[in-house]
Write a structure and sequence with these properties.
The chain has two domains: 57 residues; 137 residues, Alpha-Beta Complex (Nucleoside Triphosphate Pyrophosphohydrolase), CATH 3.90.79. The protein has five helices and eight strands; from the N terminus they run αααββββαβββαβ. Strands 1, 2, 3, 4, 5, 6, 7 and 8 form an eight-stranded mixed sheet that branches. Helix 1 packs antiparallel against helix 2 and helix 2 crosses helix 3. The longest helix is centred in the first third of the chain and has 22 residues. The mean pLDDT is 93.
């Protein structure tokens, strides 16, 4: 699947973001009702095009508060003897660098370090930012826009172990990376940039 989101999803995201921000700054109930209805329309657009249930989408849109901003996805590029750590997602059976949504209150680097421990069994320390990417996640469908931050991390201790979210943990050379990558969680460009940063940490951070 292409990493570019379909137009209906771009429109729905923009409508949701504008209405969420409008709701935040609304001065009366009339304005708030109009903004809430726009959020429902955005949910209807996605539901109509994808078959997803309307109500959970509408509830998710209406639950967002404040000025609308992208969510943050963090990933850890962890190497051992020149090979990259990947985990296999139980959700779809595909491979990705350890990571996930950053939690409120977390520093981005600490969120990435924690994800490696939880998903793969290694304590790591983030060393540098490999790249900051536009992450319009569409596979699996993600209705909110996101940015992705990939950190180059060093292993402190631990040993490979799967988790409730991951079924396998392994290290791969660039030429042996599995073909079944887990959607937008890890894309080939993220892998190429990670290997480049491992080989030459002085390279500048990649960004969109």
């Amino acid at each position: 699947m292409s990493s570019k989101p379909p137009r209906f999803l771009e429109w729905a995201r923009e409508i949701q973001a504008l209405s969420q921000t409008g709701y935040h700054y609304a001065k009366d109930d009339f304005q708030r009702d109009r903004c809430r209805r726009l959020m429902e329309i955005a949910a209807e657009m996605i539901s109509e095009q994808t078959g997803l249930d309307f109500l959970p989408l509408a509830n998710a849109f209406c639950a967002q508060v404040g000025y609308a901003t992208p969510k943050i996805d963090v990933r850890a590029a962890v190497f051992q003897l020149g090979r990259l750590l990947l985990v296999r997602e139980r959700l779809d059976g595909s491979w990705t660098m350890p990571g996930g949504w950053a939690d409120v209150g977390d520093a981005p680097s600490k969120a990435a370090e924690r994800e490696v421990w939880e998903e793969a069994g290694f304590h790591v320390r983030a060393r540098k930012v490999v790249g900051v990417y536009d992450a319009n996640r569409i596979n699996p469908l993600e209705v909110f826009h996101a940015f992705k931050i990939v950190f180059l991390c060093d292993i402190v201790d631990g040993e490979a172990r799967p988790s409730q979210e991951t079924s396998e943990v392994s290290f791969f050379d660039l030429d042996s990376i599995p073909a079944n990558l887990s959607g937008e969680r890890t894309r080939p460009r993220h892998l190429r940039d990670a290997f480049s940063a491992m080989k030459d940490p002085s390279l500048p951070t990649v960004f969109d």
